[in-house]
Fold this protein.
Amino acid sequence: MRTGERRNGSGEAGRVDAVRVPESWRRLLDAVPAAVLIVAPDGTIRYANTELEQLTGYRRAELAWQPVEILVPEGMRSAHRDARHRFGESGTRRPMGAGLDISCRRADGSVFPADISLSPLDVGGETFVVATVADETERRRRVGELFHRAVHDPLTGLANRVLLADRLDQALARAEREPRTLAVLYVDLDGFKAVNDTWRHAVGDEVLRIVAERLTGAVRPEDTVARFGGDEFVVLCENLKQPTDAVQVAKRILYEVRRPIRHRAGTCELSASIGAVLADGKAAGPILIEAADHAMYEAKRRGGGVVELRDGP
């Protein structure tokens, strides 16, 4: 068959030679450890290498002369066509996914996140597109894990100071746009030092994980529980209908902490001192946390196991 002809069905013609890809080029493209396809100006696939077959599950014969959108999930095809046309107008090498969440569709209908780089290929006065496709699933999983670790406490899995500060800033911004009340609860465990002194830090860590689970169960789904350090936790409560709502959340926390804690070495009992500060959108995050911390120390001065509620600064 002459270069440029097409044939239905399987066979070597399915390798899509309409761009006059030399045999040496084909061997080279099949050898590279990357999925590559060549797309004509009309958007049809004219060449696909072995790696692309393995990545997508399509045979080359199935892709021959098909619109490149066959590799795109249906809901993304319009955006893909727009991006392809823009590239045709610019004709410069660049990542396709700039500003887009790109995915590819396999022959079995499954979808995977993809990184696609485009390069122009001039053939006989026409600009074809060479696309390199990579599966982003593993990389995005690793990035997600790294981000999660960066904003969560490694021991308890709760939000850390970084994530708490961000959520508090966002909550204050929302409260400034639409008048609403929020509260910051500073929770410190009473008697936790004795746990570490009696059973050592392995048991102390186990107790902290149990307390973290109880705190999460005591608050509302929209609230944020963060480990602030050691045996100190901070709870951010948004959209409070009335100030007493913050007290109700604090009382549930007190109840959950007071319940006996069974750990690997036995059972212990703790209590908590809570400083609660009410605020609106005019407050500043660090000042609110500091005020809640001061209120917590007042609760400790009163003997612990109680809530000290104050209006924000």
Notes: The longest helix spans residues 192-218. Confidence is low (pLDDT under 50) at residues 1-16.
